[in-house]
Write a structure and sequence with these properties.
By secondary structure, the chain is mainly α. It is 70% helix and 4% strand. It is built from seven helices and two strands; from the N terminus they run αααββαααα. It has a two-stranded antiparallel sheet with strand order 1-2. Strand 1 (109-113) and strand 2 form a beta hairpin. Helix 4 packs parallel to helix 7 (189-211). The radius of gyration is 18 Å and the shape is globular. The protein starts with a helix and ends with a helix.
Length: 212
């Protein structure tokens, strides 16, 4: 694949950036969860929360910028962003395991994102999504490097949108845990798997439409 060189460097950036993100979390947990991270969540002062929101936005900007710099077309830029995001997210948990021996398992709960409300879920959920993002990015780059125009059809778009809505629901629906600082309800793996199935269907449909 002619994009292999760029994929390697984007991945190296993502691994290193994941360590930076993990280091920040190490410091935050030493301040707010010195006994070890666990639910229920603790209230963070507004000043620190504002910085955290800005940091998360900056993270997305940095990963997106890498995609823009590495790609030459709209879809190749998205592909490199997807690969960078997936590698970054997976290695974020690897570095936390190295630094804190956490998570103990992929089924430990974590705070995944804060915008517009906190997202929570077991570690395995974002890791699965990250692998799907990497697969999608590689598929797009393979199609484009072979001279095929990548153009997902309506079915792929619909499945991707549905999968996103379903998975986001599993992350944000438990407002008692995220906004009222209570213990989380059992994670809806059944709903999550439906969202994952939609994503897989979207990948298959996009691959077929691009092939035509």
């Amino acid at each position: 694949m002619k994009n292999l060189h760029a994929i390697i460097w984007v991945s190296i950036f993502a691994v290193a950036f994941a360590f930076v993100e993990a280091a920040v979390v190490v410091y935050l947990r030493s301040i707010y969860y010195p006994e070890g991270f666990s639910f229920p969540l603790k209230l963070i002062p507004l000043a620190h929360l504002t910085v955290e929101l800005a940091r998360e936005l900056s993270t997305m900007v940095m990963l997106g910028t890498v995609g823009v710099l590495a790609g030459s077309t709209r879809w190749s830029r998205f592909a490199f962003f997807a690969i960078a995001f997936g590698v970054w997210d997976i290695f974020y948990y690897i570095w936390l395991k190295v630094a804190l021996d956490w998570p103990a398992s992929l089924f430990d709960w974590d705070v995944l994102f804060l915008i517009p409300v906190p997202w929570i879920g077991p570690v395995i959920a974002p890791v699965v999504i990250s692998f799907l993002l990497i697969a999608a990015g590689l598929m797009i780059l393979r199609k484009e490097s072979s001279g095929t125009t990548f153009k997902p059809g309506k079915r792929a778009w619909a499945l991707a949108a549905l999968g996103t809505a379903i998975i986001l629901f599993t992350f944000v629906w438990d407002f008692d845990a995220t906004l009222r600082f209570q213990m989380p309800q059992p994670y809806r793996y059944d709903i999550f798997l439906i969202g994952v199935a939609c994503y897989v269907g979207a990948l298959v449909a996009a691959g077929k439409s691009a092939g035509r």
